[in-house]
Amino acid sequence: MSRPVHLNVNILNAGVFGGSWRFPGADPAASFGLEHYLRIARRAEEARFDAIFLADGPAIRDDIRYRPFNSLEPSVILAALAAATSRIGLIATLSSSYNHPYDVARRFASLDLLSGGRTGWNVVTTAGVDSARNFGFDAEPDHGLRYERAAEFVAAVRALWNSWEPNALLGDKAAHRFADTDRIHPVDHAGAHFRVAGPLNVPRSPQGEPVVVQAGASTDGRALAARVGEVIFTAAQTEQEAGEYYRDVKGKAVALGRRAEDVLILPGLSTVLGSTEKEAAERRALLDELVPPDYALNRLADQLGVERDALALDAELPWHLLPDPDRAGGSQTFYKIALGLARRENLTVRQLLRRLGGGAGHRIVTGTPEQVADAIVDWVDKGIADGFNLMPDVLPDGFDDFVDGVVPILRRRGVLRTEYESSTLRGHLGLPIPDHIRPGARGAA
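Request: output the structure for the sequence above.
Response:
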Protein backbone atom coordinates (compact mmCIF):
# COMPACT_ATOMS: atom_id res chain seq x y z
CA MET A 1 0.00 0.00 0.00
CA SER A 2 1.29 3.46 -0.88
CA ARG A 3 2.31 5.87 1.88
CA PRO A 4 0.22 9.00 2.57
CA VAL A 5 1.41 12.15 0.81
CA HIS A 6 1.75 15.55 2.48
CA LEU A 7 1.18 18.53 0.18
CA ASN A 8 1.68 22.27 0.63
CA VAL A 9 1.19 24.85 -2.08
CA ASN A 10 3.80 27.60 -2.41
CA ILE A 11 2.03 30.81 -3.45
CA LEU A 12 5.04 32.07 -5.37
CA ASN A 13 3.67 35.35 -6.79
CA ALA A 14 2.55 34.62 -10.39
CA GLY A 15 4.09 31.14 -10.54
CA VAL A 16 7.46 29.46 -10.42
CA PHE A 17 8.67 30.37 -13.92
CA GLY A 18 10.30 33.73 -14.51
CA GLY A 19 7.76 34.55 -17.21
CA SER A 20 4.64 33.17 -15.48
CA TRP A 21 3.14 36.64 -15.18
CA ARG A 22 3.25 36.93 -19.00
CA PHE A 23 1.25 33.72 -19.55
CA PRO A 24 -2.01 34.26 -21.48
CA GLY A 25 -4.78 35.21 -19.07
CA ALA A 26 -2.44 35.89 -16.13
CA ASP A 27 -2.81 39.11 -14.11
CA PRO A 28 0.69 40.61 -13.76
CA ALA A 29 -0.20 42.47 -10.54
CA ALA A 30 -2.26 39.70 -8.88
CA SER A 31 0.29 38.97 -6.14
CA PHE A 32 -0.07 42.52 -4.81
CA GLY A 33 -3.75 41.96 -3.99
CA LEU A 34 -5.39 39.88 -1.25
CA GLU A 35 -7.83 38.07 -3.54
CA HIS A 36 -4.95 36.19 -5.21
CA TYR A 37 -3.98 34.56 -1.91
CA LEU A 38 -7.56 34.01 -0.78
CA ARG A 39 -8.47 32.19 -3.99
CA ILE A 40 -5.53 29.81 -3.80
CA ALA A 41 -5.89 29.19 -0.05
CA ARG A 42 -9.57 28.34 -0.44
CA ARG A 43 -8.86 25.93 -3.29
CA ALA A 44 -6.07 24.32 -1.25
CA GLU A 45 -8.47 23.88 1.64
CA GLU A 46 -11.11 22.38 -0.66
CA ALA A 47 -8.44 19.92 -1.86
CA ARG A 48 -7.52 19.15 1.78
CA PHE A 49 -3.89 20.22 1.45
CA ASP A 50 -1.82 20.37 4.63
CA ALA A 51 -0.89 24.03 4.23
CA ILE A 52 -0.24 27.03 2.06
CA PHE A 53 3.28 28.44 2.17
CA LEU A 54 4.57 31.97 1.67
CA ALA A 55 8.22 32.61 0.81
CA ASP A 56 9.73 35.98 1.67
CA GLY A 57 12.80 38.16 1.54
CA PRO A 58 13.25 41.69 2.94
CA ALA A 59 14.55 43.23 -0.30
CA ILE A 60 13.88 43.37 -4.03
CA ARG A 61 15.34 39.94 -4.72
CA ASP A 62 14.65 39.58 -8.42
CA ASP A 63 15.10 42.07 -11.22
CA ILE A 64 11.79 43.92 -11.05
CA ARG A 65 12.15 44.91 -14.70
CA TYR A 66 11.40 41.31 -15.61
CA ARG A 67 9.13 39.67 -13.04
CA PRO A 68 7.15 40.15 -9.81
CA PHE A 69 8.38 38.74 -6.52
CA ASN A 70 7.02 37.94 -3.05
CA SER A 71 7.07 41.35 -1.40
CA LEU A 72 3.99 41.70 0.83
CA GLU A 73 4.80 40.98 4.49
CA PRO A 74 3.71 37.34 4.91
CA SER A 75 2.33 37.34 8.45
CA VAL A 76 -0.10 40.11 7.41
CA ILE A 77 -1.34 37.90 4.56
CA LEU A 78 -1.66 34.93 6.94
CA ALA A 79 -3.86 36.95 9.29
CA ALA A 80 -6.29 37.60 6.45
CA LEU A 81 -6.18 33.95 5.31
CA ALA A 82 -6.78 32.74 8.87
CA ALA A 83 -10.04 34.68 8.93
CA ALA A 84 -11.13 33.39 5.51
CA THR A 85 -10.37 29.68 6.06
CA SER A 86 -11.00 27.15 8.82
CA ARG A 87 -8.66 24.16 8.43
CA ILE A 88 -5.78 24.75 6.00
CA GLY A 89 -2.36 25.22 7.60
CA LEU A 90 -0.67 28.60 7.24
CA ILE A 91 3.14 28.73 6.92
CA ALA A 92 5.14 31.92 6.42
CA THR A 93 8.81 32.80 6.17
CA LEU A 94 10.45 35.20 8.61
CA SER A 95 14.19 35.71 8.66
CA SER A 96 16.36 34.90 11.67
CA SER A 97 19.01 37.25 10.28
CA TYR A 98 16.96 40.44 10.30
CA ASN A 99 14.37 40.05 13.06
CA HIS A 100 14.33 39.66 16.84
CA PRO A 101 13.16 36.49 18.65
CA TYR A 102 10.56 38.26 20.81
CA ASP A 103 8.83 39.86 17.85
CA VAL A 104 8.78 36.63 15.82
CA ALA A 105 7.59 34.56 18.80
CA ARG A 106 4.80 37.02 19.51
CA ARG A 107 3.73 37.30 15.88
CA PHE A 108 3.42 33.56 15.33
CA ALA A 109 1.90 32.88 18.76
CA SER A 110 -0.76 35.48 17.94
CA LEU A 111 -1.47 33.94 14.53
CA ASP A 112 -1.58 30.49 16.07
CA LEU A 113 -4.20 31.54 18.62
CA LEU A 114 -6.29 33.43 16.08
CA SER A 115 -6.23 30.53 13.60
CA GLY A 116 -6.92 27.81 16.17
CA GLY A 117 -3.44 26.30 15.93
CA ARG A 118 -2.78 26.31 12.19
CA THR A 119 0.49 28.20 11.74
CA GLY A 120 4.07 27.30 10.93
CA TRP A 121 7.21 29.43 10.91
CA ASN A 122 9.72 28.89 8.09
CA VAL A 123 13.11 29.83 9.53
CA VAL A 124 15.51 31.25 6.94
CA THR A 125 18.93 32.84 7.33
CA THR A 126 18.50 35.23 4.35
CA ALA A 127 21.36 35.37 1.90
CA GLY A 128 22.15 38.43 -0.20
CA VAL A 129 23.79 41.80 0.24
CA ASP A 130 20.63 43.72 -0.72
CA SER A 131 18.80 42.43 2.36
CA ALA A 132 21.83 43.17 4.54
CA ARG A 133 21.99 46.78 3.36
CA ASN A 134 18.30 47.30 4.17
CA PHE A 135 19.19 46.62 7.80
CA GLY A 136 22.30 48.75 7.97
CA PHE A 137 25.01 46.22 7.08
CA ASP A 138 27.57 46.62 4.32
CA ALA A 139 27.65 42.91 3.52
CA GLU A 140 25.72 39.76 4.35
CA PRO A 141 26.95 37.94 7.47
CA ASP A 142 29.24 34.95 7.05
CA HIS A 143 27.38 31.76 6.13
CA GLY A 144 28.37 29.90 9.30
CA LEU A 145 27.53 32.90 11.48
CA ARG A 146 24.05 33.14 9.95
CA TYR A 147 23.32 29.56 10.96
CA GLU A 148 24.85 29.98 14.42
CA ARG A 149 22.56 32.97 14.94
CA ALA A 150 19.56 31.03 13.58
CA ALA A 151 20.05 28.16 16.05
CA GLU A 152 20.08 30.59 18.98
CA PHE A 153 17.14 32.50 17.48
CA VAL A 154 14.96 29.36 17.34
CA ALA A 155 15.97 28.40 20.89
CA ALA A 156 14.91 31.83 22.17
CA VAL A 157 11.62 31.75 20.26
CA ARG A 158 10.75 28.29 21.57
CA ALA A 159 11.59 29.36 25.11
CA LEU A 160 9.16 32.26 24.72
CA TRP A 161 6.44 29.95 23.36
CA ASN A 162 6.98 27.83 26.48
CA SER A 163 6.90 30.75 28.90
CA TRP A 164 3.16 30.07 29.37
CA GLU A 165 2.16 26.67 30.68
CA PRO A 166 -0.88 25.12 28.91
CA ASN A 167 -3.26 25.86 31.81
CA ALA A 168 -1.89 29.25 32.84
CA LEU A 169 -4.92 31.14 31.52
CA LEU A 170 -7.68 30.56 34.12
CA GLY A 171 -10.49 32.99 33.41
CA ASP A 172 -11.91 32.24 36.88
CA LYS A 173 -14.52 34.96 37.49
CA ALA A 174 -15.54 33.76 40.94
CA ALA A 175 -11.98 33.70 42.27
CA HIS A 176 -11.09 36.93 40.45
CA ARG A 177 -8.13 35.20 38.81
CA PHE A 178 -7.60 35.73 35.10
CA ALA A 179 -4.22 34.01 34.89
CA ASP A 180 -2.03 31.94 37.20
CA THR A 181 1.22 33.87 37.35
CA ASP A 182 2.96 30.88 38.94
CA ARG A 183 2.53 29.20 35.54
CA ILE A 184 3.94 32.09 33.51
CA HIS A 185 7.72 32.14 33.51
CA PRO A 186 10.53 34.49 32.54
CA VAL A 187 12.88 33.32 29.81
CA ASP A 188 16.05 35.18 30.79
CA HIS A 189 17.82 34.13 27.59
CA ALA A 190 21.34 35.54 27.35
CA GLY A 191 23.29 34.21 24.40
CA ALA A 192 25.97 35.25 21.96
CA HIS A 193 23.46 37.11 19.75
CA PHE A 194 20.33 37.84 21.80
CA ARG A 195 19.15 38.86 25.25
CA VAL A 196 15.46 38.21 25.93
CA ALA A 197 13.82 38.58 29.35
CA GLY A 198 10.32 37.29 28.68
CA PRO A 199 7.79 35.99 29.38
CA LEU A 200 5.82 36.29 26.16
CA ASN A 201 2.62 38.32 26.43
CA VAL A 202 0.61 35.72 24.43
CA PRO A 203 -0.73 32.42 25.91
CA ARG A 204 0.11 28.97 24.61
CA SER A 205 -1.86 27.89 21.52
CA PRO A 206 -4.03 24.80 20.89
CA GLN A 207 -1.17 23.06 19.09
CA GLY A 208 1.36 23.91 21.79
CA GLU A 209 3.80 25.65 19.47
CA PRO A 210 3.65 26.71 15.83
CA VAL A 211 5.32 24.15 13.57
CA VAL A 212 8.97 25.00 12.87
CA VAL A 213 9.82 24.73 9.17
CA GLN A 214 13.35 24.95 7.79
CA ALA A 215 15.25 24.56 4.54
CA GLY A 216 18.93 24.20 3.80
CA ALA A 217 21.28 22.00 1.78
CA SER A 218 24.65 23.20 3.07
CA THR A 219 26.45 21.45 5.91
CA ASP A 220 25.30 24.19 8.29
CA GLY A 221 21.77 24.09 6.86
CA ARG A 222 21.42 20.34 7.31
CA ALA A 223 22.66 20.55 10.88
CA LEU A 224 20.07 23.22 11.71
CA ALA A 225 17.30 21.29 9.94
CA ALA A 226 18.09 18.14 11.91
CA ARG A 227 18.18 20.08 15.16
CA VAL A 228 15.06 22.26 14.89
CA GLY A 229 13.08 21.44 11.73
CA GLU A 230 9.75 19.64 11.96
CA VAL A 231 8.96 20.19 8.29
CA ILE A 232 11.98 20.58 6.03
CA PHE A 233 11.80 22.03 2.54
CA THR A 234 14.54 20.96 0.19
CA ALA A 235 15.47 21.06 -3.48
CA ALA A 236 16.34 17.84 -5.29
CA GLN A 237 16.47 17.13 -9.01
CA THR A 238 17.14 13.39 -8.85
CA GLU A 239 16.18 10.36 -6.77
CA GLN A 240 19.80 10.06 -5.68
CA GLU A 241 19.92 13.65 -4.40
CA ALA A 242 16.55 13.30 -2.67
CA GLY A 243 17.46 9.99 -1.05
CA GLU A 244 20.85 11.17 0.18
CA TYR A 245 19.35 14.29 1.75
CA TYR A 246 16.43 12.36 3.29
CA ARG A 247 18.65 9.75 4.91
CA ASP A 248 21.28 12.25 6.04
CA VAL A 249 18.96 14.74 7.72
CA LYS A 250 16.72 12.14 9.33
CA GLY A 251 19.81 10.27 10.52
CA LYS A 252 21.23 13.44 12.06
CA ALA A 253 17.88 14.15 13.76
CA VAL A 254 17.77 10.64 15.26
CA ALA A 255 21.35 11.04 16.49
CA LEU A 256 20.15 14.14 18.35
CA GLY A 257 17.47 12.10 20.12
CA ARG A 258 14.55 12.95 17.84
CA ARG A 259 12.17 10.50 16.14
CA ALA A 260 12.54 10.16 12.38
CA GLU A 261 8.75 10.36 11.92
CA ASP A 262 8.71 13.78 13.61
CA VAL A 263 10.85 15.22 10.80
CA LEU A 264 8.95 15.55 7.50
CA ILE A 265 10.97 16.23 4.35
CA LEU A 266 9.14 17.90 1.47
CA PRO A 267 11.13 18.62 -1.71
CA GLY A 268 9.96 21.43 -3.97
CA LEU A 269 8.02 20.21 -7.02
CA SER A 270 7.18 22.43 -9.98
CA THR A 271 4.38 21.14 -12.23
CA VAL A 272 3.42 21.84 -15.83
CA LEU A 273 0.20 20.02 -16.71
CA GLY A 274 -1.64 19.21 -19.92
CA SER A 275 -4.46 16.83 -20.81
CA THR A 276 -1.98 15.04 -23.11
CA GLU A 277 1.82 14.81 -23.16
CA LYS A 278 1.86 16.98 -26.28
CA GLU A 279 -0.26 19.65 -24.64
CA ALA A 280 1.94 19.67 -21.53
CA ALA A 281 5.11 19.90 -23.66
CA GLU A 282 3.65 22.83 -25.60
CA ARG A 283 2.77 24.62 -22.37
CA ARG A 284 6.29 24.07 -21.05
CA ALA A 285 7.79 25.35 -24.32
CA LEU A 286 5.70 28.52 -24.07
CA LEU A 287 6.72 29.05 -20.44
CA ASP A 288 10.38 28.67 -21.43
CA GLU A 289 9.94 31.23 -24.19
CA LEU A 290 8.28 33.70 -21.80
CA VAL A 291 11.32 33.83 -19.49
CA PRO A 292 13.34 36.92 -20.50
CA PRO A 293 16.91 35.79 -21.37
CA ASP A 294 18.45 38.75 -19.53
CA TYR A 295 16.54 37.86 -16.37
CA ALA A 296 17.55 34.20 -16.51
CA LEU A 297 21.22 34.99 -17.14
CA ASN A 298 21.39 37.62 -14.40
CA ARG A 299 19.73 35.28 -11.91
CA LEU A 300 22.07 32.39 -12.72
CA ALA A 301 25.14 34.63 -12.51
CA ASP A 302 23.98 35.87 -9.11
CA GLN A 303 23.39 32.30 -7.86
CA LEU A 304 26.84 31.23 -9.04
CA GLY A 305 28.62 34.33 -7.75
CA VAL A 306 30.15 35.27 -11.12
CA GLU A 307 29.85 38.24 -13.45
CA ARG A 308 27.16 37.87 -16.08
CA ASP A 309 29.78 38.34 -18.82
CA ALA A 310 31.42 35.11 -17.65
CA LEU A 311 28.39 33.13 -18.88
CA ALA A 312 28.20 32.35 -22.60
CA LEU A 313 24.84 30.89 -23.62
CA ASP A 314 26.21 28.14 -25.85
CA ALA A 315 29.21 27.22 -23.73
CA GLU A 316 29.62 25.24 -20.54
CA LEU A 317 29.75 26.93 -17.15
CA PRO A 318 33.08 28.67 -16.39
CA TRP A 319 34.16 25.92 -14.01
CA HIS A 320 37.50 27.56 -13.25
CA LEU A 321 35.71 30.59 -11.77
CA LEU A 322 33.33 28.69 -9.48
CA PRO A 323 34.15 28.13 -5.79
CA ASP A 324 33.73 24.85 -3.97
CA PRO A 325 30.00 24.46 -3.09
CA ASP A 326 30.64 24.44 0.67
CA ARG A 327 32.52 27.74 0.38
CA ALA A 328 29.98 29.52 -1.82
CA GLY A 329 28.16 32.53 -0.45
CA GLY A 330 24.47 33.20 -0.88
CA SER A 331 22.15 30.20 -1.20
CA GLN A 332 24.26 27.05 -1.28
CA THR A 333 21.10 25.03 -2.00
CA PHE A 334 20.54 26.44 -5.47
CA TYR A 335 24.24 26.77 -6.17
CA LYS A 336 24.60 23.01 -5.73
CA ILE A 337 21.45 22.30 -7.77
CA ALA A 338 22.74 24.29 -10.74
CA LEU A 339 26.21 22.76 -10.63
CA GLY A 340 24.84 19.25 -10.22
CA LEU A 341 22.54 19.58 -13.23
CA ALA A 342 25.23 21.09 -15.45
CA ARG A 343 27.80 18.40 -14.60
CA ARG A 344 25.45 15.44 -14.71
CA GLU A 345 23.89 16.30 -18.06
CA ASN A 346 26.86 18.14 -19.62
CA LEU A 347 24.70 21.22 -20.24
CA THR A 348 25.50 24.51 -21.88
CA VAL A 349 24.36 27.64 -20.07
CA ARG A 350 21.35 27.92 -22.40
CA GLN A 351 20.35 24.32 -21.73
CA LEU A 352 20.86 24.75 -18.00
CA LEU A 353 18.57 27.78 -17.94
CA ARG A 354 15.85 25.75 -19.66
CA ARG A 355 16.25 22.87 -17.22
CA LEU A 356 16.02 25.31 -14.31
CA GLY A 357 12.87 26.93 -15.66
CA GLY A 358 14.68 30.23 -15.97
CA GLY A 359 16.46 29.90 -12.65
CA ALA A 360 13.91 28.41 -10.21
CA GLY A 361 16.04 25.37 -9.41
CA HIS A 362 13.39 22.93 -8.19
CA ARG A 363 12.48 19.70 -9.95
CA ILE A 364 10.03 20.31 -12.78
CA VAL A 365 7.62 17.56 -13.86
CA THR A 366 5.87 18.16 -17.17
CA GLY A 367 3.09 15.80 -18.21
CA THR A 368 -0.45 14.60 -17.78
CA PRO A 369 -2.20 14.43 -14.39
CA GLU A 370 -1.46 10.67 -14.28
CA GLN A 371 2.23 11.26 -14.92
CA VAL A 372 2.48 13.96 -12.26
CA ALA A 373 0.62 11.74 -9.77
CA ASP A 374 3.03 8.89 -10.62
CA ALA A 375 6.02 11.17 -9.94
CA ILE A 376 4.60 12.18 -6.56
CA VAL A 377 3.72 8.67 -5.36
CA ASP A 378 6.98 7.21 -6.67
CA TRP A 379 9.29 9.33 -4.49
CA VAL A 380 7.11 8.94 -1.40
CA ASP A 381 6.86 5.16 -1.82
CA LYS A 382 10.63 4.95 -2.28
CA GLY A 383 11.11 6.62 1.08
CA ILE A 384 12.96 9.65 -0.26
CA ALA A 385 10.21 12.22 0.41
CA ASP A 386 7.27 12.55 2.81
CA GLY A 387 5.41 14.77 0.36
CA PHE A 388 6.03 17.92 -1.64
CA ASN A 389 6.03 21.69 -1.49
CA LEU A 390 4.07 22.26 -4.69
CA MET A 391 5.14 25.15 -6.93
CA PRO A 392 2.66 25.44 -9.84
CA ASP A 393 3.90 26.88 -13.12
CA VAL A 394 1.30 29.67 -13.29
CA LEU A 395 -0.95 30.97 -10.51
CA PRO A 396 -3.79 30.55 -10.01
CA ASP A 397 -4.75 28.44 -13.05
CA GLY A 398 -1.79 26.04 -12.87
CA PHE A 399 -2.88 25.20 -9.33
CA ASP A 400 -6.46 24.77 -10.52
CA ASP A 401 -5.17 22.26 -13.07
CA PHE A 402 -3.44 20.34 -10.27
CA VAL A 403 -6.49 20.33 -7.99
CA ASP A 404 -8.86 19.33 -10.80
CA GLY A 405 -6.57 16.79 -12.45
CA VAL A 406 -4.03 15.35 -10.02
CA VAL A 407 -5.85 15.48 -6.68
CA PRO A 408 -8.64 13.05 -7.75
CA ILE A 409 -6.01 10.55 -8.92
CA LEU A 410 -4.11 10.77 -5.62
CA ARG A 411 -7.36 10.22 -3.73
CA ARG A 412 -8.27 7.20 -5.83
CA ARG A 413 -4.87 5.77 -4.95
CA GLY A 414 -5.58 6.33 -1.27
CA VAL A 415 -2.62 8.62 -0.57
CA LEU A 416 -4.44 11.96 -0.09
CA ARG A 417 -7.09 12.67 2.53
CA THR A 418 -10.68 13.28 1.48
CA GLU A 419 -11.54 15.12 4.72
CA TYR A 420 -9.54 16.83 7.44
CA GLU A 421 -9.31 14.77 10.61
CA SER A 422 -7.75 17.58 12.65
CA SER A 423 -8.18 21.31 13.10
CA THR A 424 -4.46 22.03 13.60
CA LEU A 425 -1.44 22.03 11.31
CA ARG A 426 0.28 19.55 13.61
CA GLY A 427 -2.71 17.27 13.25
CA HIS A 428 -2.60 17.47 9.44
CA LEU A 429 1.10 16.61 9.48
CA GLY A 430 0.85 13.86 12.07
CA LEU A 431 3.20 15.73 14.40
CA PRO A 432 2.78 15.53 18.18
CA ILE A 433 1.99 18.50 20.41
CA PRO A 434 5.34 19.29 22.05
CA ASP A 435 5.63 18.69 25.76
CA HIS A 436 5.77 21.91 27.71
CA ILE A 437 9.33 22.58 28.84
CA ARG A 438 9.71 25.39 31.32
CA PRO A 439 12.31 27.90 30.08
CA GLY A 440 15.67 27.25 31.66
CA ALA A 441 14.75 23.68 32.62
CA ARG A 442 17.13 20.85 31.72
CA GLY A 443 16.60 19.86 28.08
CA ALA A 444 14.89 23.13 27.10
CA ALA A 445 15.68 24.29 23.57
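The chain has a mean pLDDT of 92.
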